[in-house]
Amino acid sequence: MKAIQVHEFGDPDVLKLEEVPDPTPGPAQVVVRIHAAGVNPVDAYIRTGGHIVRPPLPYTPGLDAAGVIESVGEGVTRLNPGDRVYVAGTISGAYAEKALCLATQVHLLAARVSFEQGAAVGVPYATAYRGLFQRANARPGEVVLVHGASGGVGTAAVQLARAAGLTVIGTGGTEKGRQLVAEQGAHHVLDHRSPDYLDEIRKLTGGRGVDVILEMLANVNLAKDLGLLAQRGRVVVIGNRGTIEIDPRATMGKDSSIIGMSLFNASEEERASIHAALVAGLESGTLRPIVGQKLPLAEAPRAHEAVMEPGAYGKIVLIP
């Protein structure tokens, strides 16, 4: 089968399309024939070699995908050959024609959801869900600010928060992105490049501030976020690309919190809870993954460049 292989950490051009052996499932494993693979910023971080996750070389990138079960190993009873599924984590890597997965990493995909949409579920929706409900403990009636709400995690967060009864403020850096955020259900949409957008947020909350902020670029926004929080407000740091200086006193008067999170830290129980909720949302139509770009598998280097560019719009997927 064809798969992207990385033989050395580095720039996007280390992603090479090669022939590799077909995988075979062992006990508690399945093989999925991939119809679409999702591209995430974390894939690019891992590729550089600078991420806490550093796979042995060579490796095939990718955590997210969707396709059809091709074969199952001993002891697998929940999944059967021919099932439509989405993949949230793999053993062998998702940028390939087939992927070897633990059965627990594979979830049934509702008929209403395309394979391209299914490839947009894993990391973005699980990250948004974990950030909102497992880390921030967001509750109906609270106000949530989603920075960079037009990307994969952002659109997921808007849909999840709106469905859970939160008031949603989303920001985007382009007119196209802001329109997308509004279409996903945000009550208020602002341009985070506007010099007065922070004042607009304060006005929207009557000066009270927001209860939860999902922060996709903490090295730019964290210091400002602390001034936007309501009493006992929480900032969840989902994305960061550098250092920043903050004044810790900004947290003291409000009993506010800065909460870090990584999807890699979720326990098996937490993962099971996340995907039970996501499967239900996909089945009901509450969750509607947005695919921004579709590229051939061979164009993985271009996909890794695009996923790091500003002006995010939905999820980038690769088609084997």
Which keywords apply here?
globular; 6-stranded parallel β-sheet; 7-stranded mixed β-sheet; 320 residues
Task: Write structural notes for this entry.
Strands 3, 4, 5, 6, 7, 14 and 15 form a seven-stranded mixed beta sheet that branches. The chain has a six-stranded parallel beta sheet with strand order 10-9-8-11-12-13, sandwiched between helices. The model has no long low-confidence stretch (mean pLDDT about 95). The protein has about 325 residues and is of the alpha/beta class. About 30% of the residues lie in helices and about 25% in strands. The termini are close together. Helix 3 packs across helix 9. The protein is built from ten helices and 15 strands.
Short description:
With 320 residues, the protein is α/β, with parallel strands linked by helices. The chain is built from ten helices and 15 strands.
- Calculate Rg over CA atoms: 20 Å
Q: Separation of termini? A: 10 Å
User: Which blocks of ≥5 consecutive residues have pLDDT under 50?
Assistant: none
The 3D shape can be described as globular
Order of helices and strands: EEEHEEEEHHEHEHEHEHEHEHEHE
Helix content: 25-40%
Q: Beta-strand level of the residues, as a percent range?
A: 25-35%
The number of helical segments is 10
Structural class: alpha/beta
Write the layout of secondary structure elements.
Elements (H helix, E strand, L loop, with lengths): L1 E5 L8 E5 L9 E11 L1 H8 L15 E9 L11 E5 L9 E5 L3 E3 L6 H4 L3 H14 L7 E4 L5 H12 L3 E6 L2 H9 L4 E4 L5 H8 L5 E6 L2 H11 E9 L11 H4 L4 E4 L7 H17 L6 E6 L3 H7 L8 E5 L1
Parallel strand pairs: 8-9, 8-11, 9-10, 11-12, 12-13, 14-15
Antiparallel strand pairs: 1-2, 3-4, 3-6, 3-15, 4-5, 5-7
Helix pairs in contact: 3-4, 3-9
